[in-house]
Amino acid sequence: MDRREPLLSRLDRVARIDGSHLPNSARYCVLLLIFILSLVMATFCGYIFFVDPNLLFGNIKFSMEPVAYAGLGLDGDTAPPAFNVTLRATSTFNRRFCSTGGGTVQAAFSGLTVAAGHVARFCVEAKGSAVIASTVSSAWTALPAAFRDRINHGRQNGGVELEIDLGFENEIKGPMWVRCRAILDAKQRTRCRVFTLSSF
To answer: Taxonomically, which superkingdom (predicted)?
Structure first.
């Protein structure tokens, strides 16, 4: 009985301890932890809503106007391959969206790049739109005859798909790629897809 008494006494003392009996140092640590967590949450929310509202909210969409071209060897055309590309960017972000520098534009048929060019740095105002224009040209003085024949055959059998790719970087979203696909000689605007390493 004597040997059990100290153990029972210790268990009884432990059972009586609750939040109201915490030592002052423990209460201070709990309050400090709550304060730090509240400060972190307030800072994060303030950053999202005031400093960088487009971190989580908003997106940017691209569309492509009908592409003017030359040098595909169609209808007796003998000029070097070139394309006049016009993209329209529309933003729903609450702040200006800009590329960190210029971008690259490529024109391709069936995965084969036939022309390339550059675009200057561009910005889209908050909840606004902007036009991005570029002329892309080819290092070839003329397309290979087999490729011209392939394009001609496609035009006569439902159309030839032209792919325009725009690559650039944004300070928040990082590297971004815009892919537009349209039938050659299309008369209507085409919607494009946007790819990025971070989510919108």
So the answer is: Eukaryota
Measured CA to CA, the distance from residue 63 to residue 123 in angstroms comes to 16
E strand segments, the chain? 60-64, 68-70, 82-91, 97-98, 103-109, 112-119, 123-124, 129-137, 161-170, 174-183, 190-196
* Residues forming beta bridges with residue 168, ordered by sequence position: 176
Contacts of range 117-122, beta carbons closer than 8 Å, 24 or more positions apart:
117/85, 119/166, 119/168, 122/89, 122/98
175 within 8 A of 188, measured Cβ to Cβ:
no
Task: Identify whether the C-beta of residue 92 lies closer than 8 Å to the C-beta of residue 69.
Answer: no
Closest CA to 85 of 133, 51, 21: 133
In this structure, is the dihedral angle defined by the CA atoms of residues 92, 96, 100 and 106, taken in order, positive or negative? positive
Q: Would the pTM of this model clear 0.85, i.e. be above it?
A: no
pLDDT digits (tens, 9 = 90+) for 148-160: 888 888 888 888 9
